[in-house]
C-alpha cells in the first residue's frame, strides 16, 4: 500500500510544471504555479507551506546575489499577507512574478528610507 501511494504521489508531481523561464531567468519549483493556486491553497497545508517557503527562499536568494537584505525588518507573516493581496488581485500571474513585485516594492521602500 505504501509503495502504491508513493508511485501515485510521484505521478502527480510529474504532472505539475516545475520549471519556467521568466524575465531572463529560469524559475524552478512552486514559483511557476499561478497566484490562483496560492489563493486556493488551504492555510497550513503542505502546498501552502511549500509556496511560502519558495517565496521566502526567492527573497533570500535575491539577498545572497545582491549582497544585502532587501527584506530587512520584514517578517515572514508580512510577506505572506503581501503575497495574499497580490495574488488575490492577480490570480493569473505566476507566484514568481508576485515575489519579484514584492522585491521591487521592498527596494523602493529602502531607497525612500535613505
SSE topology:
Blueprint (H helix, E strand, L loop, with lengths): L1 H14 L3 E4 L2 E4 L6 H6 L5 H21 L9 H14 L5 H19 L1
Approximately what portion of the residues adopt beta-strand conformation?
Answer: 5-15%
Order of helices and strands: HEEHHHH
The residue fraction in helices comes out at 55-70%
Overall pLDDT, averaged? 82
**Contiguous helical run count:** 5
Decide which structural class fits the backbone: mainly alpha
Sheet with the most strands: spatial strand order? 1-2
Segments where pLDDT lies below 50 for 5+ residues? 4-17
Domain count = 1
Query: Tell me about the biggest sheet?
Result: 2 strands, antiparallel
**Quick one: how many beta strands?**
2
Radius of gyration: 16 Å
Q: What separation lies between the terminal Cα atoms? A: 59 Å
Shape: globular
Write down the oligomeric state: single chain
Summary?
It is built from 5 helices and 2 strands; from the N terminus they run αββαααα. It is mostly helical and 114 residues long.
Protein architecture, described:
The protein has 114 residues and is mainly alpha-helical. It has one domain (2-113). The protein has five helices and two strands. The chain has helices spanning 2-15, 35-40, 46-66, 76-89, 95-113; strands at 19-22, 25-28. The chain has a two-stranded antiparallel ribbon with strand order 1-2. Strand 1 and strand 2 form a beta hairpin. The longest helix has 21 residues, at 46-66. It starts with a helix and ends with a helix. Mean pLDDT is 82; it is low at 4-17.
Amino acid at each position: 500500500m505504501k509503495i502504491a501511494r508513493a508511485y501515485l504521489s510521484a505521478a502527480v508531481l510529474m504532472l505539475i510544471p516545475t520549471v519556467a523561464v521568466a524575465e531572463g531567468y529560469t524559475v524552478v519549483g512552486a514559483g511557476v504555479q499561478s497566484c490562483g493556486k496560492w489563493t486556493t491553497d488551504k492555510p497550513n497545508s503542505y502546498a501552502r507551506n511549500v509556496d511560502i517557503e519558495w517565496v521566502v527562499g526567492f527573497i533570500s536568494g535575491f539577498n545572497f546575489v545582491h549582497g544585502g537584505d532587501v527584506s530587512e525588518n520584514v517578517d515572514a507573516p508580512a510577506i505572506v499577507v503581501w503575497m495574499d493581496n497580490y495574488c488575490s488581485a492577480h490570480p493569473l500571474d505566476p507566484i514568481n512574478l508576485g515575489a519579484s513585485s514584492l522585491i521591487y516594492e521592498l527596494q523602493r521602500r529602502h531607497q525612500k528610507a535613505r
